[in-house]
Write a structure and sequence with these properties.
It is built from 19 helices and no strands. By secondary structure, it is an all-alpha fold. The structure holds phenylalanine. Residues 20-21, 23-26, 98, 218-219, 221, 224, 226, 318, 321-322 line the site of phenylalanine (PHE).
Length: 462
């Protein structure tokens, strides 16, 4: 085990896994998905899904990882179910695809850091020309991929843990301060209402339900084996249940306060007209710079610069986990040196990301040719939709595997290490029920509903 590297402490694992979970998904994606999914109704369903469906998936992933001490493909082989390693194969494919576009957006965040410290608050108004400036955004994307590759080449305990330890607390303090500030702005209350008072008629809307589940999986880094991989570095004496619960709470908590920061700002920008809210990938990049400008030139530069710098770091702990999955696979199964695996994988992923990079204004074709029913038509959005449903499908397969193939008893034996009272606990009853019935049924059905709706325009929920 020690040859693969190990987390040096329980808090190290929690921070690294939370670092994977907390990222652009919470601060960039969550607010715009809330806006696309109709506000507070989306938030409500998101919270329910995170705890009753996603938490059990997380526990299962971590347990499989720790039991086998392997990457997501090797893990299923190791348990003796080679056929099921298709879950790992899909997961690695999915991770590669996510990182290919995630790295581009992370590059934007980093680029905004540079723009902010240069005092260029107007960049939010010309977001479209920013993302089409291929020299700039291409350069930022390269820098970001380098940073990710550098950390992954140093291994989990060396790179990831240390980074997460300092950055997460700072990020939270920053967001909380912005929440306080946003509440003082005119029309803030309209934003809070939009965010927290659900319109119950939206609860059965396919974009609300399906979007909430997609977002919960993405935000918690579930369904592609990222947590199988991180679990493989977790020591046997740790409590998987309480660690997973903390990670879930932490991730959901940060998304929640990010929304609490954003919607008053959105309301302020829209003069309180929340019906005019527009989601989409530009939301934070368009709204925030204008708000930082209101702080005056000195404070605005400091707060704005610091915010996008922290956002870049949060993105970095996520890109690191995304790259770690394919890298650990290549290292384990092909006995390739870690540094070499990192170079090969990051190069491949960067190349796969080029259509996403140029599909935000620079190339007409990649910006417009990929229309989905009711969605945008750029390449990046398409890949985002594909990977979102792959994550849901992966989650469905993982719990079904654990409940019916590997068997609940074996899962329970693994969880009991580090939590001796597990077998008699209420958590076990809930987990058994959730992974045997709740998750397979709800994830399976919603997977079909979302695929039909998002890719074929067929809405089963009417
Ligand atoms: N959860 C990360 C975020 O919210 C993204 C991610 C998805 C990371 C899947 C790893 C695996 O930013």
């Amino acid at each position: 085990m020690s040859s693969r590297g190990n987390f040096s402490s329980r808090i190290g694992f929690i921070l690294a896994a939370a670092g994977s979970a907390v990222g652009l998904g919470n601060i960039w994606k969550f607010p715009f998905e809330v806006a696309d999914g109709g506000g507070a109704a989306f938030v409500l369903i998101y919270l329910i899904f995170a705890f009753i469906l996603c938490f059990p998936v997380m526990v299962t992933e971590v347990a499989i990882g720790r039991k086998t001490e392997k990457n997501p493909i090797g893990a299923f082989n190791d348990l003796g179910f080679k056929k099921w390693n298709i879950i790992g194969k899909l997961g690695i494919l999915c991770g590669v695809l996510i990182l290919s576009f995630y790295n581009v957006v992370a590059g934007w965040a980093f680029g905004y850091f540079i723009e902010m410290i240069a005092g260029n608050f107007g960049v939010g108004k010309v977001f479209g020309s920013f993302t089409s400036d291929i020299i700039k955004v291409g350069g930022y994307a390269i820098v970001f991929m380098f940073a990710t590759a550098f950390i992954v080449s140093r291994g989990v305990s060396g790179g990831i843990e240390k980074l997460a330890k300092i950055l997460m607390p700072t990020l939270i303090i920053m967001i909380l301060s912005l929440v306080v500030y946003s509440f003082t702005l005119p029309n803030a209350l309209e934003g809070v209402k939009y965010y927290l008072v659900p319109d119950l008629s939206k609860l059965t809307n396919v974009n609300t339900i399906g979007g909430a589940l997609r977002q919960a999986f993405f935000s918690l880094s579930l369904g592609m084996g990222a947590l199988i991989t991180y679990g493989s570095y977790l020591s046997k004496s740790e409590n998987i249940i309480s660690s997973s619960a903390l990670i879930t709470l932490f991730d959901v908590g940060i998304a929640f306060i990010a929304g609490l920061m954003m919607f008053p700002l959105v309301a302020y920008n829209l003069g309180g007209e929340m019906n005019d809210v527009q989601g989409g990938a530009g939301l934070i990049f368009v709204t925030l710079p204008g708000v930082f400008e209101t702080l005056g030139s000195t404070l605005g530069v400091v707060v704005g610069g610091f915010f996008f710098l922290l956002l870049s770091f949060a993105a970095l702990t996520s890109t690191v986990s995304l790259l770690e999955v394919p890298v650990s696979y290549v290292v384990d199964e092909y006995k390739v040196r870690r540094s070499r695996a990192v170079v090969i994988m990051s190069l491949v992923i960067f190349i796969i990301g080029i259509p996403s990079l140029i599909g935000n204004g620079y190339s007409d074709f990649f910006s417009n040719a990929f229309a989905l029913p009711g969605g945008s038509s750029d390449f990046m959005t398409l890949v985002g939709y594909i990977t979102d449903v792959l994550l849901m499908f992966g989650g469905f397969l993982i719990v079904s595997f654990a409940a019916y193939v590997w068997k609940k008893e074996n899962l329970a034996i693994e969880i009991s290490q580090g939590y001796p009272g597990f077998k008699e606990s209420f958590v076990k009853k809930f987990l058994d029920f959730s992974i045997s019935y709740l998750c397979p049924v709800v994830l399976g059905v919603l997977f079909i509903i979302v695929v039909l709706n998002n890719f074929f325009g067929i809405n089963l929920l009417g």
